[in-house]
Amino acid sequence: MPPAFSEVKQTLKPALEAVEQTRLDQRNKLRKRMWLLASVAIGNAFLLILGTGWIVLGILLLLGVLAYTWLFWSNSKESYTLQFKQTVVVGLAEALLHKTGAYKKVDFEYTPDGHVDFDLIQRSRLLPKDAVIARGEDLFKGRIQDAAIQFSELTLVSYIDDGETGTKSKVRHFKGIGFIASVEPSFEGVTILQSHNAASRSKLARGFRKLSYLLPSVSLGVNQELAMEDPTFNETFVTRTSNEAEARALLTPGRMSELVRFRDKHNGRVDISFFDTHVCLLLGSSKNYFEAPLHREADSEHLHQLYEDICFFFSIASELGLDRRSHPPGTAPASVV
User: Fold this and answer.
1) In what order do the strands lie in the sheet containing 106-111?
2) Which DSSP symbol is given to 228?
3) What values do phi and psi take at 42, rounded to 5?
4) Is 130 in contact with 122 (CB distance < 8 Å)?
5) Parallel, antiparallel, or unpaired: how do β-strands 270-275 and 190-195 relate?
6) Alpha-carbon span 281 to 273, nearest angstrom
7) How far does the chain reach from its first CA to its final CA, in angstroms?
8) What is the pLDDT of residue 74?
């Protein structure tokens, strides 16, 4: 079992105090610059009322102070966020992984500006071929026991030509967490599970200009739709595969129940692809999971939610039962989490 949040918070007390002091210092410096900006704005108002010839110079000065204040705020926010991630976020993950007996042989690294392997995301066939990363950060990567895992925040888009105007429009396919686990032995073919709410939440549902953007797996060779024996599972996921025998061997009654329970724990879109030696998940969400606002303290509620999120992400492999997948005779099962 993961350690209690109260215990984890106590071990992070020095880091939290340092982060909070940084936040207060940055906020006080920003307040001084805001007073300077307000003073210049009031001065410009007097110049405008008096109708003097200095108004142009005053406006230029106001714009300069405004740009300076905005740049300072941007840099302060970036510096504070980085410190928060490198101390508090990493501290929460280390407390989870090293203070519980559920995880052995742990080795992970955290990269604030990194993202999961996009080549594997493309090979999962969960997205159109021309999808690109618009934003990716907060990469956790490493091994837990014998499993290689990686996950990060991702925003994935495509740019579609508008034939009438000659311009390109941006279509967002996904925003949330991308998670990849490596398992052995390899899967035969590709099996894809798409939650039923994925299509309805897509902005492309408005026009149906390209069906392949709505259901990319169909246009990428994974076009055999299966009806499984579990009606609840069929209500939760659309199942497509390039190898029916592998898909039915993979999706045992127990595995389908696990996937439905996992889906119920996540309110957003859940898409899963089993391919080669990898399992790829796209967990849709509008949250910025690992951020901390500069305008207020990271309180217990915020930290507790962050800890719960980290626990959830690190437990995905065992939640899906990847270490209990069916294996051909003579092959050893993979140990994931």
Assistant:
1) 106-111, 132-144, 147-161, 168-182, 278-284, 270-275, 190-195, 237-241, 224-226
2) -
3) -65, -40
4) no
5) antiparallel
6) 7
7) 13
8) 87
Q: Is the pLDDT of residue 77 over 70?
A: yes
DSSP state for residue 186 in the 8-state scheme: P
Residue with tokens 């209690």: 4
Q: What is the average per-residue pLDDT within 180-209?
A: 68
142 to 16, 104, 109, 151, 253: CA distances (angstroms) = 25, 13, 6, 10, 30
Which of residues 140 and 268 earns the better pLDDT score?
140
Note the Cα 174 to chain centre separation in Å: 10
What SS3 state is found at 151? Answer: strand
From CA 314, how far away is CA 140, in angstroms rounded? 9
Q: Please list, in sequence order, all residues whose beta carbon lies within 8 angstroms of the beta carbon of residue 326, skipping any fewer than 6 positions away.
A: 249, 250, 252
Residue from 302, 178, 320 nearest 263 by CA: 320
pLDDT at 319 over 50: yes
Q: How confident is the model at residue 140 (pLDDT cuts 50, 70, 90)?
A: very high
pLDDT greater than 60 at residue 330 = no
CB atoms within 10 A of CB 298: 17
Which residue bears the tokens 């797996």? 217
Is the previous residue joined to 329 through a cis bond, with omega within 30 degrees of 0?
A: no
As a whole number of angstroms, the distance between CA 97 and CA 109 comes to: 12
pTM of the model: 0.81
Residues contacting 330, CB < 8 A, separation 6+: none
Q: How crowded is residue 300: how many other Cβ atoms within 10 Å of its Cβ?
A: 11
The pLDDT, as a whole number, for residue 211 is 42
* Residue type (1 letter), 229: E
In this structure, how many other beta carbons lie within 10 angstroms of the beta carbon of residue 301? Answer: 8
Q: 22 vs 10, 77, 148, 306, 335, CA distance in Å?
A: 19, 10, 35, 20, 42
Q: What is the pLDDT of residue 100?
A: 53
Q: Is pLDDT of 44 > 80? A: no
Mean pLDDT of 70-83: 89
pLDDT given for residue 32 in this prediction: 87
Nearest to 254 by CA among 272, 228, 281: 228
DSSP type of residue 324: G
Handedness of CA 205, 209, 210, 213 (dihedral sign): negative
